Amino acid sequence: MTAHWSESPVKRAQVTAISALGVPFIAAVGASLRWKVEGLEHLNFEGNGRRPIMAFWHGRVLTATYYFRQRGIIVMISENFDGEWIARIIQQFGFRTSRGSTSRGGQRALLQLKREMERGYPSGFAVDGPRGPARKAQPGAIWLAKLTGNPVVPFHMEAASYWSLKSWDRTQIPKPFSTVALTVGEPIDVASDADEDALEAKRVELERSLFTLEQKAAAMLR
Fold first, then answer.
1. pLDDT, tens digit, for every residue of 74-124?
2. 3-state secondary structure of 161
3. pTM (2 d.p.)
4. CA atoms of 171 and 192, how far apart (whole Å)
5. Domain boundaries along the sequence of the chain
């Protein structure tokens, strides 16, 4: 059996260092960014009795963390090494976390998300996480929409100037003072009695919407 990352002193030290450096870095870069936004009216955080299930690609986690900070959004985060430092960072920006993924602890995490949404919190999903394949939507957000009656609201962020990490998701890090385009799509509702075929159709709809939003964001930067 492979040892859990937390059993390694080196890995634990790396998590501490990454989170300690990541928080001030994201705050500083985020404060310098300029934003172009389209479709924000689709995100209703309060007033209508429903909360959005925000869906996006894992590679945009840094810009999403900064823009949507301090809203009490609860995010499903995997229990692996990357998930640990991501969780520590986003908690400093006012996010809440539910630990698990579609491959491990997913049912427990989804039930926690359901309870938190019933208490009035919006939720967020990096829908191709925790380990890919990149830009292939997993069904977790769709399942949560079925469980809660809340809509899935896809969004995409694209920076005009950025660095890309050599990770599976090619995490995008905007360069200071660059412009970031944010596009938000139409809400996707999922019926409480949706069967497997209907759920798969909604998953495909979400994936296609994210690709469309990606194209729109790129066009906004031209």
1. 998 878 888 888 899 999 999 999 887 655 656 788 888 999 999 989 999
2. coil
3. 0.90
4. 34
5. 5-220
